[in-house]
Amino acid sequence: MDKIIEFIQQPWPWWVSGPLIAYVMFSLLYFGKGFGISTNFKTACCMLGSCKVSDFFCFDWKDQIWNLMFISGVIIGGFISSNYLTPDTSVAISPATIADLKAIGIANPGASYIPEEIFGTDNIWSLRSLIFLLGGGFLIGFGTRYANGCTSGHAISGLSNLQYWSLIAVVGFFIGGLIMTHIILPYLIAL
Amino acid sequence: MKLKHIRFLIMGVLFGIVLSKGEIISWYRIQEMFRFQSFHMYGVIGSAVLFGILTIQFIKRTKLKDSEGNYISVSTQDPGYSRNLIGGSIFGLGWAMTGACPGPLFILVGHQGWVFLLVLLGAVLGTFTYGIFHKELPH
């Protein structure tokens, strides 16, 4: 048993994670549901009474209880993984990425899952961290609803179903991601 | 809440562990992807899509039924260049900033704690803003 736990505690290679993501999508389809995480933000708006200001939020949120259960499980999965399955939280990123990130002001790239100077609890009440957290979140919420899907709905489900419009959305994801990474991010980190 | 909803909770736990252990929730892995400096994220998404294509072809060809006995239908996406390119790009900006798409955001709440609730708050505000202005926007 200890050997199994030890084996699980290593970082998993892509060829383990990728097929398991497809398996999760299949499980949801088998139980009559479609894989779509960002829909939960819309459900949250609906539950908070946004129907009064926009009919976009007028639907029966009870149909989405399964999805709220799913994301509750996702949070629990993150907690289990962090506390019991990940003794070493360093991430073995490529030397080229380490060099690039050091050059724009990240002190220890790959030392843990996230850069502490931006997302660490000690630093979050700085202007820079609030822009990354609230501003980044805002763009995710606005963009996913505009494109009607995120990585789960478009990149995984949509591409798996050979949907042309999902391919276009994924092209959009990369346009935004490349602009942020190569043009805007150095300025934000320098704040 | 019905008891059968517990199965979605369990699937969520599995999904959360897979994305944690696969390091898909790491800000650094997303940076590596947008800098084209590692195969890791392309391997994850590529193999998920490859297995996904095989799965959906299997579902369609065998006319597989779901647990309730209905034929499984996979929903199609909304057409339109403006909606998918502009909306997708706005999401992409946020993805590269936070290093997380919506699934990993929830995982990071379990992983790193309440800091990531602020990102979720931002996402709900962004969704709300889209809902207010969506009739004004090109789709």
Tell me what the structure shows.
By secondary structure, chain A is an all-alpha fold. Chain A has helices spanning 2-9, 14-30, 39-47, 65-85, 95-103, 116-119, 127-146, 151-160, 164-190. In chain A, helix 8 packs antiparallel against helix 9 (164-190). The termini of chain A are far apart. Chain B has 139 residues and is mostly helical. Chain B has six helices and no strands. Chain B has helices at residues 6-21, 27-34, 40-61, 81-98, 102-112, 115-133. Chain B is globular and about 40 Å long. The chains are: A mainly alpha (191), B mainly alpha (139). The interface between A and B is large, with 127 and 113 residues.
Kindly list the characteristics that best describe this protein:
heterodimer, A: 191 residues, mainly alpha, 9 helices, 0% strand, globular, B: 139 residues, 6 helices, 68% helix
Largest sheet of chain A, in brief, is: none
Structural class of chain B: mainly alpha
Major sheet summary line of chain B: none
**Count the strands of chain A?**
0
Radius of gyration of chain B: 18 Å
The total count of strands of chain B amounts to 0
Q: For the largest interface in this structure, which chains are involved and how many residues does each contribute?
A: A-B, 127 and 113 residues
Helix content bin of chain B: 55-70%
Sequence of secondary-structure elements of chain B: HHHHHH
Structural class estimated from helices and strands of chain A: mainly alpha
Mean pLDDT over the full residue set of chain A: 94
Question: What shape does the CA trace of chain B take?
Answer: globular
Rg of chain A (C-alpha, Å): 19 Å
Proportion of helical residues of chain A: 55-70%
Q: Count the helices of chain B. How many?
A: 6
Distance separating the two termini of chain B: 36 Å
Supply the number of helical segments of chain A: 9
End-to-end Cα distance of chain A, whole Å, is 48 Å
